[in-house]
Amino acid sequence: MANKIANIDYLCVIREKNGKSIFETIDIPVSIELVSILEGMVVNKNATVLDMQSQMNIAFKENERKSINYVSPHAYGSSFIDITFYPDSYTFERYNQMLSEKKELLTSEYANQNKKLMEARPIDYNQGLQKYLDSKLEEYQQNLKNNYLRQAKRYICAHNYTLTLVRAKSTGDIRMYSTDTLGWSDFDYKVTNDITIHLGTNFGYGSSSYFRLNLKYKGVDILPYSYMVKYFEANRRDLLRYTRLYEVAHDSWNIAFSFVEETANLAASSAQDFLEKWVLNEIKEMVYGLHGILENPDFHINDMLNKSGKRADCGYLSVRNMYSWEKSRYGVYPEEMTMAIQAEKITGALDFLGNLSALSKMIPNIDGFISEIKEMAIAIVPKLEGMMAQIEEKVAILQEQKASKEVRLEAIKKALEPHEKEIDRIYAARPAEQKNWTRMAYASEYASKHKEYAINKGIADELGSTISRLSEDIRMRESFSRNLKECRGRVVSAGLLKDTTLAA
């Protein structure tokens, strides 16, 4: 597969063979002869874009010249792209009209640029005009051919992909296939009697693009529970909806289909082994990890700190390790951030209860894990509330300090007002040769001659910096408090505690 690209060079399929799900690739034809002819015409000065379109029209019947919803060769994460259209075509009359219009435009441009030459040396002007027209018209015709070749190659690729897909689907043993659709695309594939795969893609929409896969076993979503505790950041909304969330890239088809092949075959050969690997092990890892976070948070957080800056190693885009700025934040707020991590992980696991209850019909001992999750969520509430109270007290102190600094700063600013007005007057009256000088330069010179101003200005700047630091400290602590309040709310929403049990 080296240097080959999914949906351009080959189609990915899951084929049923002897009761097994096999990930295979089917080569997509490249129409070497047609492409070679078109490329040859591009470099042949005697060939025109009309010759190129004649070759395309010979290769594709009129009823085949339809637009195709096909993204490639563009990157899936690109934006402002369109579906694939049959290359632009021109009649002989229209083509000659275009050349004539271009010639008129070029003649006018040359005349505007060489008026003096036209008047002084008409012969030289005419010779120069002819050379200019020959060069620019050749360039224009070459651009038409280059653009046609680009459109033609994309259309040929799209057409061959479509034919390959249609033929593959007609064989009857294809359970799943890769797609290359611009915009929203949702497909459900019944891979086995028990395994259903939902593939959702949105290619060609920049940051809004996505590549999602969800695996259902006997109608129940199989989710990546362990990711909740494996990574510093885990988007619970995505973890609750998708088995895998891949990079928006062509190679993700290979990763996704390999995953489907492995899981489907395991489920078909041994339901017990499948449930053990993809369900029970995932749940165990999550629950054991939650115990570690609750009982020994320092070890868990140090592991996160050691992975700072590293990408997630699972291919799931909604989970990641700690960024460097988050590591720095932990250094400033170790207690608050430790509590926030504990609360977020443990109460976040409550969102899985519905799915876990559905799985308990297949795996009876899951009920024990459900009970453990609930117990841990209840157990963390007193610590969570204690931290919220501690933050509230600290914020009150910080706000009082900030208010005191602001009163003092206001008094200093009033003392500085006459000086600032004088600096403004001097700056406004600066001589012409000093118009590029900044006000700061005049303020600095003024301070060197007025000690009282210099002292008060220094005090004001220091107070301003202190107030900014206090404001940021307050903002951060209030952010932690809101996060903890949200975590506490999850425990209430899960019916584990009544509102009256918790502080308002």
Proportion of strand residues:
5-15%
What low-confidence regions span 5 or more consecutive residues with pLDDT below 50? Answer: none
For the largest beta-sheet, the strand count, sense and barrel status come to: 5 strands, antiparallel
Query: DSSP helix count?
Result: 16
Structural class: alpha+beta
User: What share of residues is helical?
Assistant: 55-70%
Primary descriptors:
11% strand; five-stranded antiparallel beta sheet; 504 residues; flat; three-stranded antiparallel beta sheet; alpha+beta; 3 domains
Can you summarize this structure?
By secondary structure, the chain is of the alpha+beta class.
Structure, explained:
By secondary structure, the protein is of the alpha+beta class. The chain has 3 domains: 10-174, no CATH class; 184-332, no CATH class; 387-501, no CATH class. Helices cover 62% and strands 11% of the residues. It contains 16 helices and 10 strands. The chain has helices at 32-43, 49-59, 92-113, 115-120, 122-169, 227-230, 236-241, 252-269, 271-295, 297-306, 324-332, 334-348, 353-359, 366-428, 439-449, 451-493; strands spanning 10-17, 20-27, 174-177, 183-190, 195-203, 210-217, 220-221, 233-234, 244-245, 319-320. The strands form 3 sheets. Strands 4, 5, 6, 7 and 9 form a 5-stranded antiparallel β-sheet that branches. The chain has a 3-stranded antiparallel β-sheet with strand order 2-1-3. The protein has a two-stranded antiparallel sheet with strand order 8-10. The radius of gyration is 35 Å and the shape is flat. The model has no long low-confidence stretch (mean pLDDT 93).
